[in-house]
TrEMBL record:
Name of the molecule in the record: Glycosyltransferase involved in cell wall bisynthesis
Pfam families associated with the record: Glycos_transf_1
Keywords: Membrane, Transferase, Transmembrane, Transmembrane helix
Record-linked InterPro entries: Glyco_trans_1
PANTHER family: GLYCOSYLTRANSFERASE WBBK-RELATED
Residue intervals of the Glycosyl transferase family domain: 181-313
Gene3D superfamilies for this protein: Glycogen Phosphorylase B
Position of the signal peptide: none
Lineage top rank: taxon: Bacteria
Length: 356
C-alpha cells in the first residue's frame, strides 16, 4: 500500500472537499494546508503563513493538489517549480468565471485573475468538476451579458492539460427514506444569503406567489437576510446540520436548482439521492445531472417557470421519477467513480501506480 506524502491546499472544507480528503487518505499521507481565506482582511497574513507552511512541508511530498484556483494556488505553483513537484489544480466554478452582472466569479477581481492566470499556466494539469468550466455559453439568465465563460475563454492559449473529474456523491450518507412521507407539493432549495440571486432565490419567491397551496423551503438562509417580500407559503430554515438536511431532502417532493451559473451542483445531487425530483436551470452541467429524472427550466422567467412547475406538479409518475433521480446519480456521479477517475488521473500524470 502506497503511503506517499502529498500536499493538499484548500481555502475551505466543504463536504466535497472532505470527500476528496477521505479518498486521498486511502492512498497517501495527506498534509492539509488550510488558511482562513474567507476573511479578506487576513489575506496578507494568510499569504505569509502559507509560504512557511509549505516551506516546512514540501520536502518528501509526491505532488501538490490545490482545491480551487485563487491566491492559495500561487505558492503551490512556485514551490512546485522550485522543488520539482507536480502541481494539480481542481477548479469548481467561481475560479473559472467573471459575471459582473450578478457579482459572481473570482475572475472579476483583476489581481485574483492574474494569480489564477499565473497558476493555471504553470500547473501540470487542471481538473475541473464539469466540462462547462472549460468553456460554456450562459443562456439561462437574460440579465447576464457576459455569456462566454470557462478556462479557455478567460485564459487564451492555456496549454496545461485539462481533465474533467466529476464530483462524487455519497449514496450511503444521502439515502431514500425508509418510510416515504413527503410533504405534498413541496419544494426545497439550498443556498446562502450571498447566493440568493445566483441560485434563483428571487425567481423562487415569484413562483411561490403563484402557487399559494404549495410549500417552498430555503435551507442555509434566514428570512431576516432577505430584503424582498416573502409569501406566506415560503419558509426559511436557516443553517441545517447534515442530519437535518438529510431529513429535509427525504420529506421534500421537488428540489430547485435554478442557478444562473453552477460549476457542478452538489446539493442537487444530494437531494436526488434522497429521491427529491429535480427542477434545474438550463446552465452549465445541471441538465446532465438532472438527466431524464426531472425537469429543466430553459430561461429565468416566471412565465417559463410556471409551465415547468405545472408539468412537475401534474406528473403521474412521481414515484418513478423519485427512484430514477437516485439511480441516475448513483450511475453517473458516485464517490466510487470519482475515486477511480481521480486516482487513475493522478497515476497518468505522475507516471506512478497508487494501489491499495
Amino acid at each position: 500500500m502506497s503511503r506517499n506524502k502529498i500536499l493538499y491546499i484548500t481555502p475551505s472544507l466543504q463536504s466535497f472537499v472532505k470527500s476528496d480528503l477521505r479518498i486521498l487518505s486511502k492512498y497517501f499521507n495527506v498534509r492539509v494546508i488550510n488558511q482562513p481565506w474567507g476573511n479578506k482582511k487576513l489575506a496578507p497574513l494568510n499569504f505569509i503563513a502559507q509560504f512557511f507552511s509549505m516551506l516546512f512541508s514540501i520536502f518528501g511530498a509526491e505532488f501538490i493538489l490545490v482545491n480551487f484556483g485563487g491566491y492559495w494556488a500561487f505558492w503551490a505553483t512556485v514551490f512546485g517549480q522550485v522543488f520539482g513537484k507536480k502541481v494539480f489544480i481542481v477548479t469548481h466554478g467561481t475560479d473559472c468565471a467573471s459575471i459582473p452582472e450578478i457579482n459572481y466569479g473570482s475572475l472579476r477581481i483583476d489581481l485574483l485573475k492574474q494569480i489564477c492566470n499565473f497558476s493555471y499556466r504553470r500547473a501540470d494539469a487542471i481538473f475541473p468538476v464539469s466540462e462547462s468550466l472549460i468553456e460554456t455559453e450562459l443562456l439561462f439568465d437574460p440579465a447576464i451579458k457576459s455569456r462566454k465563460q470557462g478556462l479557455l475563454f478567460h485564459f487564451h492559449g492555456l496549454q496545461a492539460p485539462i481533465k474533467t473529474i466529476y464530483n462524487g456523491l455519497d449514496d450511503m450518507q444521502w439515502t431514500l427514506p425508509t418510510k416515504p412521507n413527503r410533504i405534498p407539493n413541496s419544494f426545497l432549495a439550498v443556498m446562502s444569503s450571498s447566493q440568493f440571486e445566483l441560485k434563483g432565490g428571487d425567481l423562487i419567491l415569484k413562483i411561490a406567489e403563484k402557487y399559494p397551496t404549495c410549500n417552498f423551503y430555503f435551507a442555509g438562509i434566514n428570512d431576516s437576510e432577505i430584503k424582498l417580500d416573502i409569501p406566506a407559503n415560503v419558509y426559511f430554515l436557516g443553517f441545517l446540520s447534515p442530519e437535518e438536511l438529510l431529513e429535509r431532502y427525504q420529506k421534500t417532493e421537488f428540489y430547485f436548482q435554478l442557478s444562473s451559473f453552477e460549476g457542478f451542483g452538489c446539493a442537487l445531487g444530494e437531494a436526488m439521492l434522497c429521491g427529491a425530483i429535480p427542477i434545474g436551470s438550463y446552465t452549465n452541467h445541471i441538465p446532465q445531472i438532472v438527466g431524464d429524472s426531472g425537469f429543466i427550466l430553459g430561461e429565468k422567467s416566471l412565465e417559463a417557470a410556471i409551465l415547468v412547475v405545472d408539468k412537475a406538479l401534474g406528473s403521474i409518475n412521481k414515484d418513478l421519477l423519485s427512484i430514477n433521480s437516485r439511480l441516475h446519480i448513483q450511475a453517473n456521479y458516485s464517490l466510487a467513480l470519482r475515486e477511480q477517475t481521480l486516482i487513475g488521473t493522478l497515476e497518468q500524470f505522475t507516471g506512478k501506480s497508487y494501489t491499495l
